[in-house]
Design a protein that fits this description.
Chain lengths: 494, 501
């Protein structure tokens, strides 16, 4: 029954994100019509994201970050906007209430529920839709492709394919437990902790399902940026295609999210240059503030190449439109290029960099859900620290082995924890296919590398851990909590 | 028509005349014009007639009041005071007894942290949710009992109790779902917490009905019997503390329900609500009238317990619990609450005294400036008496303070001062409610509640649990300051507010 549960959790995460960053953002930042709907969406998104980050950090530093305070924060935002627009006078509120009742009555008598359908039908048949239909069709196909590429691993695995996700997860748990509010990274963990807190969803599941959604949104943001700069929707779709299908690094990593904000800032500034809407400047300012607080890194080579390609195409399309508009090269060139790239280099799923067995992550979550908070401890490799921080006690497996291996066989000795789970691998997890031949001294002496990344170090540690557990089991009551061909989880209860 | 006949006719129509213009209007409605007033009665116009009748009625009322024996007046005042004190003491006495027993035998109510958290949360939630319905039941009950319509009072009280029960069921279910979703407690604790919430909510509502009947000692009896059931179960059975608490609460609820319903049934002149032909008033209008009182009740009880909720939510996450009031904090605040319960009883009586004084003054005195001056002086005098009483109580409790540990002592002192400020604010709030101004009272309590909750919540999470008491202190201060400002306005326009009352 893993699939239905996972799908339900994904729906919860995505619906809650949509409710906050679409519905709440729309209510809090009302805008005059006329601006491109994607730009308007991203404008509201960066503004609300900046407010959210500020609120999360302020609340965490006051040690009051939870669903109640976050819900109150969004409620206050919506209420303040409403009052600013309509005033606080009771007579105004009464009039609005009566007007709303009258509107509902009118809507009911004229069968208002039919109107959205009629509106869409009219819009679909309009000349503007006919003009936009090919590019929107292409964008929809690309969106499906990008979604498949980005959602493949998260749907199959609870463990993270990207090591940076563990850092994000730990930061989310720290924020939710009011510790180390201002430690980097700030932006992504603030966003993740908001959803985890409001939805009462485990931070691990939120990190798992929200990260790919953000990846898709931010690659779309890249597409929007080039579309606005070169005034060509087709170039935007091409960029979206390249960034979404061929950049294998996650945009939710703290380095790349800065790049996304930079691209969005450029998009807002470009739109300001063309349309002189002041709201673009505010949005650009928010995007640049987010860029600053997300400690940006230099563009990765892969991303730089993709953006360069998009810019060349954009320039070529612009030239073609100027020189020979009758041939519609500016539409056909990106389309044929996309088809060509897709045929020669079909998009591959990103190479995962797993750090643990899937069963280890699943069992950690199962323990956290089954046992009362803080009434159990876990001795396991370092990844379980992020997975259990604030929910239960954690003991590093290497520390655990060194501390107890001499005393484990002693019948009078007992582990100090009331319920202890020890994760022991039958086949040590292989981070590298083969042992690296050249490793710098600093890495070699790093305990995480020595115990968990180096195949020899990990095998040795797992063997010692297994011996310790077997020795303890001979003299104490215990049970095997979980076992498969790779992993055994021992449970020792007092 | 002679002048005496005219006076009698006017006073029959309106026995308590407000001013000369009202009297003149009634005079004109009796067919007296300016010409008739000048020719037959010898007054220049009907206004002069009205003025004369008003003076005559006030002079007679003063004469009657002066004729009363001073001893009888003192006894009546003592009776009023006892009546007012009895309501607060009906709750305060059992609670004080419990406090004494707890300090005498600290292990008597020893509960696991989970049970402690869920039970204290359900008690607070029940007091808040039933607080609003309790206010509605009291208001409507007093109104119809005052109109000598006990059958209607019973029907309406039962109706509001039924609605209260339904609302509490709904709230309980929603609370259960939310708490389950946010994993505040495990389902087992949540289910029993919900049951306790429902039982206690109903109990508070039945207590409100009993207070309408004036049977305050029945309330005391309910708590004493409930306590006795608990004591017997603890001593004679091996049920354990938690089941004993539930059985005791259920017994108290049963006794409360029986006392309230039978109390109304056997009230003189009451017929069975099923056979009674008295028509209910229009419910939307009744609701419209009572909604401010409902909101006032909810806001007032939320204000009183906001600091405890803040302290309960500030439990360290390393404990693995979501809610639990620190026992040291509870001990400190209970001392303050004891002072508040005594002060609240005195405030009830003082407001009653103040309002009677005001109404009497309005009937006797014509000079508005003088009324305002005397009212302000009496108001200040009563506040000074309240301050002196607090000083007396705090000095009397100094022995209790000195026996507490330093951290608990700080909480107790902060809590006592906070509750004292709340009592001062409560005086103003009850004056406003007595003047038919519950909407103003709701606004004031709302502002104070926000100050209390915000300060207490942030400080308890940021610095430590015991600093939630500062929230109460700040809230009490805000309540006192803003309600005093409102009362100043009310006293300046005393004539207008007297007319509204």
């Amino acid at each position: 029954m893993r699939w239905p549960n996972d799908a339900w959790t994904a729906c919860e995460v995505w619906l809650l994100t949509a409710a906050i960053f679409y519905k709440v953002a729309k209510a809090v930042f009302p805008e005059e019509p006329g601006r491109n709907s994607l730009l308007r969406f991203f404008g509201r998104f960066v503004r609300l994201l900046l407010l959210t980050v500020m609120a999360v950090l302020a609340l965490a530093s006051l040690r009051v970050l939870n669903a109640l305070t976050l819900g109150s924060f969004y409620g206050l935002l919506v209420a303040a906007t409403w009052l600013r627009r309509h005033g606080i006078s009771p007579s105004v509120i009464r009039e609005r209430f009566l007007a709303r009742v009258a509107r509902i009555e009118h809507w009911y008598t004229r069968n208002g529920w039919k109107e959205p359908i009629l509106f869409r039908k009219q819009w679909l048949l309009s000349p503007r839709a006919a003009h936009l239909f090919p590019v929107m069709g292409a964008a929809a196909v690309v969106l499906l492709l990008v979604a498949e590429v980005h959602l493949r691993w998260p749907f199959d695995n609870l463990r993270f394919a990207d090591p940076e996700a563990y850092t994000n997860l730990l930061r989310v748990r720290q924020l939710l437990h009011d510790t180390r509010a201002f430690t980097q990274p700030l932006v992504v963990p603030s966003l993740l902790s908001t959803i985890a807190s409001l939805g009462a969803i485990d931070a691990m599941q939120v990190t798992r399902f929200l990260s790919p959604l953000m990846d898709i949104l931010l690659t779309l943001g890249g597409g929007v940026a080039t579309a606005v700069v070169f005034r060509s929707n087709w170039v935007g779709v091409f960029t979206f295609f390249l960034l979404g299908c061929y950049v294998h690094e996650s945009f939710v990593g703290e380095g790349l999210i800065g790049t996304s904000f930079l691209l969005l800032g450029i998009a807002f500034l470009a739109d300001y240059c063309y349309s002189a809407r002041r709201v673009n400047l505010q949005d650009a300012l928010c995007a640049f503030v987010l860029l600053t607080i997300s400690s940006p890194k230099a563009f990765p080579r892969e991303l730089a190449v993709m953006l360069l390609l998009s810019c060349i195409l954009g320039f070529a399309s612009w030239l073609a439109y100027r020189l020979a508009p009758q041939y519609r090269v500016e539409s056909l060139l990106p389309l044929f290029l996309m088809i060509g790239i897709f045929s020669c280099f079909p998009p591959a799923f990103p190479r995962p960099h797993f750090l643990e067995y899937e069963a280890a992550a699943r069992q950690s979550l199962r323990i956290a859900e089954t046992y009362p908070t803080q009434h159990w401890a876990i001795a396991a490799p370092v990844e379980q620290f992020s997975e259990t921080f604030g929910i239960g006690q954690y003991e590093d497996l290497d520390e655990f082995v060194r501390q107890y291996q001499d005393r484990a066989g002693n019948a009078s000795f007992q582990f100090p924890d009331k319920t202890l789970f020890v994760f022991v691998e039958k086949r040590p997890f292989e981070y590298f296919a083969t042992e690296p031949t050249a490793v710098s001294f600093s890495i070699l002496t790093d305990p995480t590398y020595r115990n968990y990344r180096s195949p020899a170090g990990r095998s040795s540690l797992e063997l010692s851990a297994r011996k310790l557990c077997e020795a303890y089991r001979e003299t104490h009551s215990s049970r095997v909590f979980y076992e498969d061909e790779n992993l055994t989880v021992f449970e020792f209860s007092r | 028509m002679t002048f005496d006949e005219l006076t009698e006719a006017v006073l029959t129509i309106s026995p308590q005349l407000l001013d000369s213009r009202e009297a003149a209007t009634i005079v004109e409605s009796c067919g007296i014009t300016d010409r008739i007033a000048a020719s037959d009665l010898g007054f220049p116009d009907t206004f002069a007639v009205g003025e004369h009748i008003l003076r005559h009625s006030r002079a007679s009322a003063t004469l009657v009041a002066r004729k009363e024996m001073p001893k009888a007046s003192f006894l009546r005042e003592a009776g009023v005071a006892a009546h007012k004190f009895s309501l607060s003491f009906a709750y305060a006495l059992p609670w004080t007894l419990l406090l004494i027993i707890e300090s005498w035998r600290p292990n008597l109510l020893q509960l696991s942290p989970e049970w402690g958290g869920v039970l204290s949360f359900s008690i607070i939630a029940s007091l808040i949710s039933a607080g609003g319905f309790g206010q509605m039941i009291s208001r409507i009950g007093y109104f119809y009992i005052g109109m000598k319509e006990p059958t209607l009072a019973l029907r309406l009280c039962l109706l509001f109790a039924k609605w209260g029960a339904l609302a509490c069921c709904l709230l309980g279910s929603m609370g259960f779902l939310l708490a389950y979703h946010f994993r505040l407690f495990t389902p087992r604790y949540l289910a029993w917490g919900g049951v306790n919430f429902l039982m206690l909510s109903m109990l508070w509502m039945f207590c409100s009905m009993l207070s309408v009947l004036g049977r305050r000692w029945n309330i005391l009896l309910i708590f004493i019997l409930g306590g006795a059931v608990f004591a017997v179960l603890q001593a004679e059975s091996r049920l354990g503390t938690v089941p004993s608490i539930f059985i005791a609460n259920a017994s108290a609820l049963g006794i409360g329900a029986a006392s309230a319903v039978l109390g109304f049934r056997f009230w003189p002149g009451t017929s069975s609500p099923r056979t009674s032909s008295a028509a209910l008033p229009r419910l939307p209008l009744v609701l419209l009238m009572l909604v401010p009182y409902f909101l006032y009740g909810v806001a007032y009880f939320s204000f009183l317990f906001a600091d405890r909720v803040a302290a309960g939510s500030a439990i360290p996450w390393a404990s693995g619990l979501s809610f639990g009031i620190d026992s040291q904090y509870k001990k400190g605040m209970d001392v303050g609450l004891f002072i508040f319960l005594v002060l609240a009883a005195v405030v009830e009586y003082m407001v009653d005294h103040f309002m009677r004084y005001w109404f009497r003054l309005a009937e006797e005195e014509n000079n508005t400036e003088r009324i305002r001056y005397r009212l302000t002086r009496r108001y200040r005098l009563l506040l000074i008496v309240l301050c002196l009483l607090f000083a007396l109580l705090a000095s009397g409790l100094w022995f209790a303070y000195s026996r507490l540990e330093p951290a608990v002592r700080v909480t107790a002192v902060l809590g006592s001062v906070g509750y004292f400020l709340v009592a001062l604010g409560l005086f103003n709030l009850i004056v406003l409610c007595s003047l038919n101004q519950p909407e103003r009272a709701v606004g004031l309590v709302g502002v104070a509640l926000v100050s209390n909750a915000l300060t207490g919540y942030v400080l308890s999470h940021l610095i430590g649990v015991q600093f939630a008491a500062i929230g109460l202190l700040v809230g009490g201060f805000v309540l006192f300051v803003i309600s005093s400002r409102t009362i100043r306005v009310v006293l300046q326009q005393s004539g207008f507010f007297y007319a509204l009352a």
